[in-house]
Amino acid sequence: MENTPLSLVDRSAWQSLKTHFETISKSHLRELFANDPERGTRLSAEAVGIFLDYSKNRIDAKTLELLLQLAKESKLRERMDAMFSGEKINTTENRAVLHVALRAPKTASILVDGQDVIPGVHEVLDKMASFCERIRSKAWSGHTGKPIKNLVNIGIGGSDLGPVMAYEALRHYSDRSLTFRFVSNIDGTDFAEAVLDLDPAETLFIVSSKTFTTLETMTNAHTARAWLLQGLGGDESAVAKHFVAVSTNAKEVSKFGIDTANMFGFWDWVGGRYSMDSAIGLSTMLAIGPDNFRAMLQGFHEMDEHFRSAPFESNLPVLMGLLALWYSNFFEASTVAVLPYEQYLKRFPAYLQQLTMESNGKHVTLDGAVVGYQTGAIYWGEPGTNGQHSFYQLIHQGTRLIPCDFIAFNQPLNQVGRHHDILLANVFAQAEALAFGKTSDEVKAEGTPDWLVPHRVFEGNRPSNLLLIDELTPNTLGKLVALYEHSVFTQGVIWNIDSFDQWGVELGKVLANRIVPELEGQDEPNLAHDSSTNNLIRRYRRAKQSA
Ligand code: G6Q
């Protein structure tokens, strides 16, 4: 097929990068900066209000040229066009991948199986908006006539991490008269603590599940139903006023007892981890209001358009994707640290973990051959400055190379004394220290005794990106998330993997279901697992019996 690129390791840019790596890996960022006084401004890019400083990466002009050539040889442009035009690029599930349609304007048109999906997207958005207005204006009353004050999202994975992250990120813009809780875990503690101080008469549950069959979500939803009915005297008709659903599965929604008039739909071409801007974002819209939600969608869309149209050399997601791949495949870095210097982004690393690792944690290519190279890196992180007082030690002086993405904002959302200047001083200082380190001469010049010098040396040459954005708003959050979505896509295309399936997650959904009856059955089960699993099951049964 004309559109199929050569196997990654046979592409000529890959071969050249291998040779080039031998030289560049020996250069220090200190020299690279010293030899090029303009480097700090030249190796930066800005688009849609996001400034990316990528000068503190272990690259030179040649590296960039070869990485960009690799993107071309990998047919990145063609794969992008295929995604944006609704082709079924998620081949193992035979699905289109159209999260970009969720934020496309009404005037757009994207066809899936000959059908334009855009009118449906806006229909659901309008339905969400009118529901949110009713809750926020207190026009929607619960079973006893009291208005709804508490919203509990029940969902897991893609039906939880996006809503939680967005709620925390945009809390500044949220209606503080409403209380939001998120229940995901099958561990009963999650539900028990979430509703501990809530009045059922004032509580509405949003059951968010694409399939409406996920064990955790359905178990929590049934527990919520029982809690509600118990609190409201057992009248089943209360369910209609206190439960809504976000799903693609109308049949299961109505089986649960939720009126499908109170169901907000989405489509099989929206992957779970790409769904926070679909109806799965209902809790976000309830918190920040429809106008702010639309501003977030606009931000997503602006980044989509940038990704789709900007030349690769100034394309933020392409550049970030290529740099991530450079460290994964050539420096053999296994992780990436994401370090937002913004307290409201405290759940952003957790959100990104799913986006990146579920998408690109794949060991075979699209045609099923085992890859001969590393794929998705491990993403992790915490907000700064907190991390500086814990794991940064290893990033600065450990033996592993950990590329970092720093994220910072010019404007604080809470102007408190000098805090913001100090916060920004810290993020700039960390990126600087990681890149340039401290030589033994510098340490000695400080009067450090000889025996202590090696301990106080910082090798430097630790790479980082710094994203500087004006202010955290719904709009810029949309841009930031879309930036990472497309960076993940860029990497997945080059690795030639399916970034949109998740067979590893599907496996987990099946496995536990097999063991549940073996734990709950009255009679001693006939166990046919391995000896370790059998033993654990028996010990748990004995402990249960003697409790
Ligand atoms: C996301 C994954 C996964 C999924 C959850 C919840 O891309 O598919 O995290 O979102 O397993 O699935 P449901 O929404 O179907 O309950």
Q: What is the CA–CA distance across the termini?
A: 64 Å
**By helix and strand content, what is the structural category?**
alpha/beta
Low-confidence regions: none
Bound molecules: glucose-6-phosphate
Number of separate strands: 13
What characteristic shape results from the CA principal axes? globular
Rg, Cα atoms, Å:
25 Å
Number of helices: 22
* Lateral arrangement of strands in the main beta sheet: 1-2-13-12-10-11
**Helical percentage:** 40-55%
Overall pLDDT level: 97
Percent range for β-strand residues: 5-15%
Please outline the major beta sheet: 6 strands, mixed
Structural commentary:
It is a single chain. The protein has 547 residues and is an alpha/beta fold. Helix content is 46%, strand content 10%. The chain contains 22 helices and 13 strands. It has helices at 12-24, 29-34, 39-42, 61-73, 76-84, 118-136, 161-169, 188-195, 215-231, 238-242, 250-256, 282-288, 290-309, 316-329, 348-360, 392-397, 419-436, 440-445, 453-456, 474-495, 503-520, 531-546, and strands spanning 44-47, 50-53, 111-112, 115-116, 150-154, 179-183, 203-208, 243-247, 263-265, 335-340, 378-380, 404-409, 464-469. A 6-stranded mixed sheet has the order 1-2-13-12-10-11, sandwiched between helices. α11 (250-256) links the parallel β8 and β9. The model has no long low-confidence stretch (mean pLDDT 97). It binds glucose-6-phosphate (G6Q). Glucose-6-phosphate binds at residues 156-159, 209-211, 214, 217, 271-273, 358, 502, 505.
